[in-house]
Please model this.
Amino acid sequence: MGILEGKCAVITGASSGIGRAIAQAFAREGAKLVVNYNRSGDKALALVNEIKALGGEGLAVRADISDEGQVMQLVDSARGFLKDVDIWVNNAGADILTGGSAQISDTEKLSLLIDVDLRGTINSCWQIAPLMKKRGSGVILNMSWDLSTHGFHGRNPQMFSAVKAGILGFSKSLAWSYAPEVRVNVLAPGWIETSFAEEVMAQEYYEARISEIPMQRFGKPHDVASAAVFLASDAAAYITGQVININGGVI
Model:
């Protein structure tokens, strides 16, 4: 039996990258899953099929988490499939680094990050946390950035830092508000091998970042997923209001 056997989880932005890795890890540990997506329906359905092939149960549900009404519908759909939600992972985030969004103005990028990352996280937490508290238990994991409290040069990092630091502060306050029934923790990945690192990042920039990491490599999505599994499990029953940096030792 996996350490999440019998648990029911929702993961937002689960169709690719870190969210997909978390869904895969949760499924391997026995959790029943709702995988949320906004645009990548084919990838989300492929993930559900993969979960079923592992002997698990999964459902793909489309919702734009920046829209409060759609978040409410996501919660309703999740509860209809899962009955109770034991774990909620707010992984969905705006991609302003690849694709068409990389070409929009900085003002538009900032609005997108605030709407999806910050407002989406808050919307989701405000919907699910009271339900968890009422039933007497629950785990919420929110996604920040390890450099949000230290800073990093560049216009995009300025925006990321502001938004992800907001998520960190909100999460700590949420943990206070819903303890002891609900545990709220934050995952703060550093440089991870996502599509940005693989497709966009220049080799010189990539090597410069590695030189700053004590572990001398970028993290993998499964590195973040492993931390998520631990925090979601009963092994972390006395951990709430904390931030876990998954960054290879950068301080």
